[in-house]
Fold Molybdopterin molybdenumtransferase.
Amino acid sequence: MKMMKTEDAVGHILCHDITQIIRGVTKDPVFRKGHIITKEDIPVLLSVGKDHVYIWENDDTVFHENEGAAILRDICMGAHMHGSEPKEGKIELIADCDGVLTVRRQALQAVNSVGEMMIATRHGGFTVRKGDKLAGTRVIPLIIKKEKMARAKEAAGPLPLLDVHPFKKKRAGVVTTGNEVFHGRIEDTFTPVIECKLAEFDAEMAMHKVLADDPAAITAAIQEMLDAGMDMVFCTGGMSVDPDDQTPLAIKNTGARIVSYGAPVLPGAMFLLAYTEDNRPIVGLPGCVMYSKRTIFDLVLPSLMADVPVTASDLSRLGEGGLCLNCPVCTFPNCGFGK
């Protein structure tokens, strides 16, 4: 690459996009990389502030910005996504389906730490829709050493940095607990909320039982639903530390592996997540899910619907941004709480 005075560049090959920015009107290239500069192009180049341009010279030790961005695209690109055409040295990754985006965070940080390059992604662990932008990649200078791009590939490792996990058709069992509901003292307003949230993912509540605060009966109901082939089981209510709240004990007695009892999210601190031996989730939902617009349930449910395992570490990371502000107009998931 060689810098040349614009008036002297006629006949040479432009090695980068030239962008015209008119506020409120346009921000697009007026000339693309590879364009052969003509005499008629000179006034246009000068009008966009280009008194000098970079013209192409062969150099086997470097990549052009578009080639570097393509390497970063390939480092990122996992299942169910595609890349855009290079534009001004940038390539975007686009979702091919609805699902949950996962990001290999440590590897992403390692690549971005190499320098002279960047990958910016959406937050991992949350819902994306078909057509959503997932990430943008670009090389900062116009050219970059091939050796540096090799270091980026090494830092990323053999697996893609990003994947989209499609939502799957699920059948759920719901165990509604509480003496007050079981004996008809109050109306069950919890179960309809669960049904509504499942419907957002085209899932169905295929089994439902209402039980008193009897841990043995709750355990038996959970096991019955699992034996009947339910993909997941939700237990509503009885999740606090009151002596008569028996749901956590009932879930524990199924023999499922407890991932976490408690989460750094408000509303939703008394959330419980467990997995069976065959990795089907059993979830204890605190009472706030019944009356709050958005809770820990909304943050975790997409992963459950896409068969993305949720770990204790995943839940602990929710603390930053884990406070719902109960805005008058809910914009979930496009809010701080929704990451």
About this structure: DSSP finds eleven helices and 19 strands in the chain. The two ends are 41 Å apart (CA to CA).
